[in-house]
Amino acid sequence: MSAAFSPRRLAAMMLKEFYQIIRDPSTILIAFVLPLILIFLFGFAVNLDTSRTRIGLAVEDNGDAARSLAGAFQSSRWFNVVATGSVGPLKDALVGERVRGVIVIPQDFGREVAHGSGEIQVITDGSIPNSASFLGSYAEGVRASWAAQRATDHGQAGAPPISVDNRLWFNPGSISRNYLVPGAIAIVMTMIGTLLTALVIAREWERGTMEAIMATSLNMAEFIATKVLPYYVLGLGAITVCTVVAITVFDVPFHGSVFALFVISSSFLFSALGQGLLISATTKNQFIASQIALLTAFLPSLLLSGFIYEISSAPLWVRYVTIFVPARYLIPQLQTVFLAGDDWSLFLPDIGVLLLFGTFFFILTVRANKRRIA
Amino acid sequence: MNRFIPTLTRIWAMIVKEMWAVLRDPRGRIILVVPPIIQLVLFASAATLEVKNVSIGIYNRDSGQASVEFMSQMAGSPNFGHIVMYHSAQELRDALSRQRIIAGVMFDDGFSRDVSAHRPATVFAMLDGRRSNAAQIVSGYLGVIAANVGATLRPDLAQMNTGKSIVRNMFNPNLDFLLFMLPSLVVTVAGISSMSVTAQSVARERELGSFDQLMVSPLRLYEILIGKMTPPVLIGLFNVTIYLVVITQIFGEPLRGSVIMYFVSLLLFLIANIGIGMMVSSIAQTQQQAFLGMFLVTVPISLLSGVTSPIDNMPVWLQVIAQANPQKHMVVIMEGLFLKAMPVSDVLANCVPLVMIAAVSLALATLLFRSGVE
To answer: Which of A29, A143, A191 shows the shortest C-beta gap to B165?
Structure first.
């Protein structure tokens, strides 16, 4: 295993790997079917934009103001009033999950409004915290704009003294799908780069075919290249399919260049493939390799990468853990290349980190293999 | 001859053999117990949709008191971690596109003048739409600060319009995301690990050829399946017992509902998952196929469970599909038991779909195994 480099031998080995991949239906399944399923799930199922929330409305005051505010809730595009009545039964509906919140316009609301105040109560289902917090602030939003309108109608200065003019850059419609679908491409790359590679190569170790290859005159660089390049091509293929689906089916904007996407993906695949090779070389057992790949690659990419959950909100020790999650450096790049355009001042430092990860994994893999052979 | 050996004896022998097969390998033993606990602790801490410690940029062209008051209220808010001053609008924009900050706040040079002249004053905020969920929450924080600053600087106006919404969050008053995430993760982690142990144990025997030997032994098919189901059930129950201790003792989240129902519902849930794992392994011929098949099933199951994003936000056809998802029903039960003190009758009602999923999947797996043998 130390002969000089031979292009012909490399090509032959590469061909063997390609046949091995193409002839196994489960590999194709994970390389093309699973990515599509994932993209469709993140496009359709994972939706962080609160749609019309089912609420109950209890109007305890029959005055003019209370009726008009109730009307504002009925016609709001954030709410779907599915039940009205008194607070008691509506709270039961909340416990039974038939409504997600209850809005109470209390008895002396009209009198309070006449004096310039007027409080309403919002009861939410705190067992789903994100929805509950949106419900609370949307309800206040409906009330505040109703109050402002009413003040203007009565000839008072309705506008608050200070208002905030918000501009949402890169995603003006605030559509969560626009950043979740590019993020899902990172998950796809992790799946192919680490999970699939770790599993397939661990199987070769388990069956002893790896030792057979090691015993040939293949040198270490050629050996790694034959193992890595087919999955790299497979990964790029899957990314292409996902990107096309994201743009055509889900209308995700693509403001960057294909070249940038290619460079970003390649740097991440370098690191992901290195990790996959390392896992297979150190475990040499399919079950353990699959579990370690899940635990150290797939789940961190999903949960510790800032893809869905903000890293800054996590406790300090978790923020330190995320430093060692390669996907953390990929997600901002992918979201940027889709939604903002090419920004090399953002890409280059992250690409550098990913290349470092990859180099580190490959060096460890080479060392692990050398030790085994010796 | 086999009719002289009682069924129970045969099942017992099968169970002993299966427990040995799973627990023999020391690395395998560690993989079964340690990662699930790490996942629970790490992901419960990391996975939060709350927005805290975010970095905000400011470009201040105002020299008066109003912007100073605004900034000091921002600095006092626990939601904002770093507040960075920039010296031009361009610098602020660059910082936003490089994701150094999630929002940039700008004060015009007439800001304080407007406030003191009783003209409506505006704060400009640009937000990073690449993280639109977090950006919207940040915009909510800025709105609250604007209202507070307005009330401080213009007490005359503040007295005129003091209406507000009093929000009360049932079951989880402070909307602590951890209280939501811990019960959810019991479901995700226990579900995935029981399913994958099942699928791998059957597929391993198939790959080695010992499954065929089992099939021609005096054991009946249902006896083999009971034997195969026992280790994942026992390991699953062992893990959920540890989870209960970790959640109540270390994280301090009380179990408000019945402890017995915690175990009864989780037992049914584990059996439903094992049924699905059996189905996958009855189709897969090799460990690799079983693992990839598992992956194909678990990713949609976790994403359609309501943990990552509410089922309410999904399109109706996906909500219908989600009814066949054991994790979806189990999340309702776990949130109910931990947060809502769900009564036994409601828990049992939510267990009915679990029993149905378990029955259907085990029946299908048995049929598939039988047809595979003949």
So the answer is: A143
For the stretch B269-326, pLDDT in tens is: 999 999 999 998 888 888 888 888 888 888 889 889 988 888 888 888 989 999 999 9
The shortest CB-CB distance from B115 to any of A161, A165, A176 is to A161
Task: Determine the number of helices (DSSP H) and then strands (DSSP E) in chain B.
Answer: 15, 5
Type of residue found at B338: F
Q: What is the pTM of this model?
A: 0.87
What letter represents residue B331's amino acid? V
- Adjacency order of strands within the sheet including B103-107: A162-169, B121-128, B103-107, B54-60, B80-86
C-alpha dihedral sign at A107, A110, A114, A117: positive
Two tokens, residue B86: 């920039």
Cβ atoms of A104 and A60 closer than 8 Å = yes
Please name the member of B94, B163, B303 whose beta carbon is closest to the beta carbon of A118: B163
User: Between A34, A162, A169, which is nearest B296 by CB?
Assistant: A34
Question: Is A313 in contact with B52 (Cβ distance < 8 A)?
Answer: yes
Inter-chain CB proximity B123 and A42 less than 8 Å = no
Which residues in chain B touch residue A56, judged by CB atoms under 8 angstroms apart?
none
CA distance B163 to A140: 10
> How many Cβ atoms are within 10 Å of A62's Cβ, its own excluded?
9
Integer Cα distance of A65 and A69 in angstroms: 6
Q: What angle, 0 to 180 degrees and rounded to 10, lies between the N-to-C axes of helices B287-303 and B177-208?
A: 160
CB proximity under 8 Å: A 172-201 to B? 172, 174-176, 178-179, 191, 195-196, 199-200
**Residue A33 corresponds to which amino acid?**
V
Q: Where are the beta strands (DSSP E) in A8-72?
A: 53-59
pLDDT tens by residue, A195-232: 888 988 888 888 888 777 777 777 777 878 888 888 89
**In which band, very low, low, confident or very high, does the pLDDT at B373 lie, cut at 50, 70 and 90?**
low
Measured between beta carbons, the chain B residues lying within 8 angstroms of A174 are 129, 132, 135-136
B190 Cβ neighbours under 8 A, 6+ residues apart: B36, B236, B239, B240, B243, B266, B269, B270, B273
Quote the ipTM score.
0.84
pLDDT tens-digit profile of B206-265? 888 888 788 788 888 888 888 888 889 999 999 999 999 999 999 999 999 999 999 999
Check CB contact of A348 with chain B, cutoff 8 Å: no
**Is the CB of A122 inside 8 Å of chain B's CB atoms?**
yes
Q: Is the dihedral of CA A59, A65, A69, A75 positive or negative?
A: positive
Is the separation of the CB atoms in B347 and B337 below 8 Å?
A: yes
Structure tokens at B11: 């099942």
Phi, psi of B63, deg, nearest 5: -115, 10
Q: B50: which chain A residues are within 8 Å (Cβ-Cβ)?
A: 129, 310, 313
